[in-house]
Amino acid sequence: MMTLRRYGFWFLLAAAIIFPFAFYSSDMSARRELSMVERIVFAVTKPLEAVFSVFTSGLGETFRNYVQLRGAREEAMALRSENAELQVRLQLMRELELENGRLRKLLSFVDRQGLKFISGRVQNADPTFLFQSVRVDRGQSIGSMPGMGVLSADGVVGVVMRSGTSWSDVLLVTDPNSNLDVIVSRNRRRGIIEGTLGRKMRFKYLDQGSRIQPGDEVVTSGLSGPFPRGITVGKVVSTGYEGTAQTGDAPGLPPMEIEPAVEFGELSEALILLNLNHEVDVIRRVGGAEWMDKLMETASGRPASQ
Amino acid sequence: MTSVFPPRTFHFLGVMLFLFALFFVQLRILSGASSLWAQVDLVTVFVAYVSIEHFLGGAVIKAMAAALLLECFSAAPAGFYVMYYLVVLVCGNILARRLALHNVLSQLAAFVAILALKLVLLYVLFWVQGRPLPLAALARFLPSLLSTVLCAMPLLGVFSRFDALFEFLPVKERRTHEAQA
User: Fold this and answer.
1) Which of A128, A166, B15, B93 has the fewest beta carbons under 10 Å from its own?
2) For B115, what's the count of Cα atoms within 13 Å in the CB-facing half-sphere?
């Protein structure tokens, strides 16, 4: 005890010098799973969080249910959830119409009726104010897994980063660790966008010679990742200078900013896309549903999601 | 202030519960605020307070608990807040020994330095990953930093009042008592 008192500060100073070196030399990407210690902390705080949530949400619920019209709120929330699903299906149909209108010779047809959604409520945002994530109240009990896409009525929200039994942490598309394969609707130019520390995104990579202008809509490409083709991601709001930006001409071209279609500050409901990713769907069609389900069951150690 | 509860163990448990309450306020209420001025980093102010006023062992436990809580619920890379709060503990200890932190200006300067340190570590994080940030990107966090610094002054008073409920003496006063004894 005396040793700790006398030399405790120096141990702490040594830890504070050594730990940053270890941290910065490790893999610092956004984490997929909680570590054992973090799971213990989470389990310990779960009851406290539940008490706090009951207290704060109980007061709010009482006001909403009895002071305002009874029953109207539940009906409105159910309608909103249904509307969100329909809006997403409408966007998919709109993209199909555009494809047919351009008379593409090679159509890679995907059975869009096979897409499955589950809606969830957004519980809270990232408490650090630096990184960008939200927690949704749906988890592994309904089949949510890391890597699944998350949408809202307005467009792409992000990707499930990790999930527990009844919750899923979603890494927003505006987070710096987020990457998304997209195309520009107007000219079908493909690129990859990443989040920034602000509330916008920027092109990390873009096809050489692409001409981008403010107002161009950016949608998911469907070529990789968990999202099907045609889901709205955002709109180009800045090309760094007047007029059209063209890649490949000026090495020092300022990055093009994309404003997300989703207003994350007002996000209250999200749809988790239960189809894991496009590549898995292709394998499922080739190998057969039964073979795929057995493979997923073996790999994950639990029954495959429906 | 007359003590209400027995000391030490109950003080530790009480402080931990207080930390959880602060964290959940930050998680459920402040994180959802649309205005950047409402994003007050209560947990970091708490960690800075315990690093200055509490004994080292207890301060380390409380700071690490705060770091683990934040990392469980956020997209921060594993270890980022552990690293940050380790450095805050060291800086808080050094500041407590070297500066007269009862002066308002020195307290303000200390908190500005501690909160700016978070942005510095974030900048280094992206620089090491090969994605250096423009300094203008960090300017987005200035409203949050300023509002946290302004709220830190009254929060320190709240924290010390809370400690006084348990007859807790800050580390400096206890050392003075021991030296006199």
Assistant:
1) A166
2) 31
Distances in Å between the Cα of B142 and the Cα atoms of B38, B40, B65, B136, B138 are: 12, 11, 26, 10, 8
Sign of the CA dihedral B167, B172, B173, B174?
positive
Half-sphere exposure of B5 (CA within 13 A, CB side): 15
* Partner residue facing B70 (CB), from A48, A123, A128: A128
Secondary structure (3-state) at A124 = strand
Instruction: Tell me the pTM.
Output: 0.73
What gap in Å lies between CA B56 and CA B125, rounded to an integer? 27
In sequence order, the 6+-apart residues with CB closer than 8 A to the CB of A186 are A216, A217
Tokens of residue A293, six digits? 């389900």
Q: How far is CA A196 from CA A131, A202, B140, in A?
A: 9, 7, 11
Under a CB-based contact definition with an 8 Å cutoff, are residues A152 and A127 in contact?
no
Which of B17, B81, B90 shows the shortest C-beta gap to A12? B90
Condensed to tens digits (0 to 9), the pLDDT of residues B141-167 reads 889 999 999 999 899 889 888 888 877
- The C-alpha atoms of residue B144 and residue B150 are separated, in whole angstroms, by 10
Number of H helices, E strands in chain B: 8, 0
Give B56's contacts in chain A (Cβ within 8 Å).
4-5, 8-9, 12
Q: State how far the Cα of B131 lies from the Cα of A61, in Å rounded to an integer.
A: 44
Condensed to tens digits (0 to 9), the pLDDT of residues A252-295 reads: 555 678 999 998 888 888 889 887 555 665 665 566 666 666 66
pLDDT tens profile A237-251: 876 554 455 544 444
Measured between CB atoms, does A2 come within 8 Å of chain B? no
Distance CA B57, CA B45 (A): 18
Q: Helix count (H) and strand count (E) of chain A?
A: 5, 14
